[in-house]
Hints:
Elements: E1 2-7, H1 13-29, E2 35-40, H2 50-55, H3 59-65, E3 70-74, H4 75-80, E4 93-95, H5 98-107, E5 111-113
Amino acid sequence: MNVLFHIDESSRWNMALGNIQNMIRYMEDQAIPYQIELVANGPAVCELQDSVSEKLGLKEPLCSLSPKIRICACRNALMGNHITPGRLLPFVDIVPAGVVEIAQRQDDGFSYIKP
């Protein structure tokens, strides 16, 4: 199963991470192969900064998920929020445009979830 999670609101991080953790647990318990991608755009890219994620208690869950899922930040949103790539958590991939990444993944057959 291929699933794309989309987050663009900073207030939705805990819900998104909880949804992803629950999905992974289910998939692994049922021995279902999966590929999960999380795309952050808009203001939600701010929480992918190392210092911000640590301050908000998001760093540990993001780090624990990073080997199992792909975590992406929209370059346009980073520029709009004046965030340089060096401030991001080291495992975050930067995509040129979050909306294009979302559309491409849906075209690839990923199910779209926006917590």
